[in-house]
Amino acid sequence: MINIIWFFILAFGIILGIFTGRGDEISKAIINSTESTVKLAIGLVGVMCLWCGIMKIAEKSGLTGKLAKVLKPILKLIFKDAARDNKAMGAIVMNLTANMMGLSNAATPFGIKAMEELKRLNKKDGEASDDMALFLILNAACIQLVPTTIISMRAVVGSSNPAATIIPGIITTGTAAILGVILCKILQRYF
């Protein structure tokens, strides 16, 4: 549906531009925007490779493992069924740790594994358990210690301080994660 809406917006803009005699301006704008998009994409690839390398070093050095040890006791308090299952808790911890460190590509397989383990523990077939809903909220609103994508994009477009968003990002994502858990726990009582 959204593709249809975007198509009509673009078509309407182009047709309106042609009828108002601004077809050449539209052509120039299209060419300029595609050129800047390619430059941005190429710049992002390089910076993202750098950050992926740094995060891989953090993973190999054991930093993510130490973060996982800190997270495990906290997560055992908020998850009901998964807290008693080492496989499920291990996958949840690894997913959230990878997300916190900005390793979203590495977090995806752990997220899938965590959801499979939570499904195994789920007593209601075809219905999400409370732990599954809570995991989704924590995964979506995960605290970002190193927002690599934002830092990369800011660096590519020439920001004088690309990492200036780290502290506001931690505050914002921390608030979102805490509120998400609180609201999930409140709603679990009623649904």
Short description:
The protein is an all-alpha fold and 191 residues long. It is 79% helix and 0% strand.
Q: Bin the helical content.
A: over 70%
Instruction: Return the structural class.
Output: mainly alpha
What string gives the helices and strands in order? HHHHHHHH
Task: Tell the overall outline.
Answer: globular
What is the alpha-carbon Rg in Å? 22 Å
Number of strands: 0
In terms of DSSP E residues, the strand content is under 5%
Low-pLDDT segments: none
* Biggest β-sheet strands, sense, barrel: none
Total DSSP helices: 8
Mean pLDDT: 85
Count of discrete structural domains: 1
Instruction: Compute the separation of the termini in Å.
Output: 31 Å
Keywords: Membrane, Transmembrane, Transmembrane helix
Transmembrane segments: 39-58, 133-157, 163-187
Organism: Clostridium magnum DSM 2767
Pfam families: Gate
Descriptive keywords:
globular; transmembrane helix; 191 residues; mainly alpha; Gate_dom; Spore maturation protein A; transmembrane; single chain; membrane; 8 helices
